[in-house]
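To: structure desk
From: M.T.
Subject: fold request, one chain
Message: Could you run this one when you get a chance? Sequence is below, nothing fancy, just the single chain.
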Amino acid sequence: MEVINALGRRKTAVARIYVSEGKGNITVNNKDFSEYFPKGTLHYIVEQPLNALSVREKYDVKVNLFGGGMRGQAEALRLAISRALVKINPEDKSVLKAEGFMTRDPREVERKKPGRPKARKRFQFSKR
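Reply: Done. Structure tokens follow.
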């Protein structure tokens, strides 16, 4: 099997991944993913598509991650892994789509408007 690459995004985080056959190692920015993501909930998010298809120990994943925060990066990585698994085996798409792993979350931060304290908040109205 050759190396499969995929891209995942969430908020401002971008995950570029390269999947090859291996022993189940996930390397993020040249660190083990459990070292890169300190919380167990983030480990769970990253492994969700692999566990849904029971292929956790079958593929090695090498990741370049940048932008965003920890949660956004973990969810970007989840999308990238899902897309790569579908490239490897298109029949798995229905399982991953039913779990919601194939959908790119489009929500982004709204820009701050001039004359306002934040994007939508207004200064307090004063009648007098």
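Reply (cont.): The chain has a mean pLDDT of 93. Let me know if you need anything else for the meeting.
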